[in-house]
Amino acid sequence: MNLKDAGSFPFDDSAKASGPLAGVRILDLTSNVLGPLATQTLGDMGADVIKIESPDGDAMRNNGPGRHPGMSAFFLNMNRNKRSVVLNLKNPAAREALMRMVAKVDIVVHSMRPQAAARLGLDYATLCACNPRVIFACAPGYRAGGRYANRPAFDDVIQGESGLVDLVHRATGDVGFLPTVLADKLCGVMLASALGMALYARERSGRGQEVQVPMLESMLSFNLVEHLWTGAFGTEEGQFGYVRALSRHRKPYATTDGHICVMAVDDPQWKLLFQALDRGDLIEDERYCSMVVRSKNIDSLYSLVAQEIGKRSTAEWRTRFDSHDVPNGNVQRLDDLPKNPYLAESGFFVHYEHPSEGAVTTTAIPTQFSSTPASMRRFPPKLGEHTREVLKELMLEDTVIDALAGAAS
207: Cβ–Cβ under 8 A, 6 or more apart, which residues? Predict the structure, then answer.
């Protein structure tokens, strides 16, 4: 089953949601990357996501290239399957309308610092009094109640504080960030996952709850899965850092005409790799014959593998490694991804016509459900595109809607 069969097509806002979260309604007060990615994930799974924006809109609307103001490529790729409502929450009438929404939704998620949210009346006690079944969520930089609870935090800051920058330095010798907003994106995935679990818990208990995914602690738990290393044994002499991953020789191997990625982990896989390299003699070498000793001699082992791989072309090695069932792959340039035959076959790149932006390309929904397929139903919205539609669903009077729309402009 390819992605086209799995419900990724087409954009049709009249289509009934078919995903596992069909019928769930979310009030999305997030901006930038982390929150919007989380809520888009839930929207792809069938949830009705109502994106509440200030009159200025989500800052990502103008981050990067775009055909029209407020509709950047960055924004388009994180905000499908949402309806945009503009409310100026400094206006008491807008806050009242928001609370009427709270009474009708399953989840309220925001990306404000705790103090700022509380000033707007967006705290769990207030929302729970309005709707005991509501799930109230956020992903702040740091845990609630701690000394940094109200400090601002963005991806680069968390990369530094969670040890990612140190890992880059130890592996490469350079002090730098990973060239992707990893903390924002990973914590967004964690937030979406946590909200799915909270919905399941509510189905059993009948009550909502507050959910927080602190970025620093979340990234630390992620990074230290392997990098806690001997620190896992609780001694003062413990050394953090997985030695194989931090070896400066751990990189794509140069062939006669390019590079190739090769990976072996356990003893059987290394045996196959040594055979593919025509170096069966290394299977019994006391430096490389087991996982324990390989870890101690990882630099020399990687250097040896690099020396052998440098003798043949990439195509030759791919054929040879495939025949020995050794995991391997090309070094793919980002610009070449649209021409990748595997991705073309799976329908990974989705091409569509946006009502205002014209021809647009996005990526397909990777997760597949056999009975409740995810789908792309709503185009990434223009700022405030659905304000009147959503306020009308609240059964507000036309005069109130007109006043709110006027205050938001």
Answer: 132, 133
Q: How far apart are CA 27 and CA 393, in angstroms?
A: 14
Tokens of 214: 């602190």
Is the pLDDT confidence value at 4 over 70?
Answer: no
- Dihedral over alpha carbons 7, 13, 15, 21 (to 10 degrees): 60
Phi/psi for 46 (5° steps) reads 110, -10
User: Has residue 7 got a pLDDT over 70?
Assistant: no
Contact predicate 87/52, CB 8 Å: yes
What lies within 8 Å, CB to CB, of 394 at 6+ separation is 97, 100, 101, 104
User: Quick check: 364 pLDDT over 90?
Assistant: yes
Residue 222 zone, left/alpha/beta (φ > 0; ψ -120 to 50; rest) = alpha
* Secondary structure of the chain as H, E, C letters: CCHHHHCCCCCCCCCCCCCCCCCCEEEEECCCCHHHHHHHHHHHCCCEEEEEECCCCCHHHHCCCECCCCCEHHHHCCCCCEEEEECCCCCHHHHHHHHHHHCCCCEEEECCCHHHHHHCCCCHHHHHHHCCCCEEEECCCCCCCCCCCCCCCCHHHHHHHCCHHHHHHHHHCCCCCCCCCHHHHHHHHHHHHHHHHHHHHHHHHCCCCEEECCHHHHHHHHHHHHHCHHHHHCCCCCCCCCHHHHCCCCCCEECCCCEEEECCCCHHHHHHHHHHCCCHHHHHCCCCCCHHHHHHCHHHHHHHHHHHHCCCCHHHHHHHHHHCCCCEEECCCHHHHHHCHHHHHHCCEEEEEECCCEEEEEECCCCCCCCCCCCCCCCCCCCCCCHHHHHHHCCCCHHHHHHHHHHHC
pLDDT interval class at 408 (50, 70, 90): low
Question: How far apart, in whole angstroms, are the C-alpha atoms of residue 117 and residue 408?
Answer: 19
- The one-letter code for the residue type at 77 is N
Predicted confidence band of residue 16 (pLDDT cuts 50, 70, 90): confident
- The dihedrals phi and psi of 373, each to the nearest 5 degrees, come to -65, 140
Tokens 């019928």 identify what position?
23
**What is the model's pTM?**
0.93
CA angle 54–55–59, rounded 5-degree value:
65
pLDDT value for 10: 61
Among 353, 350, 360, which residue's Cα sits nearest to residue 76? 360
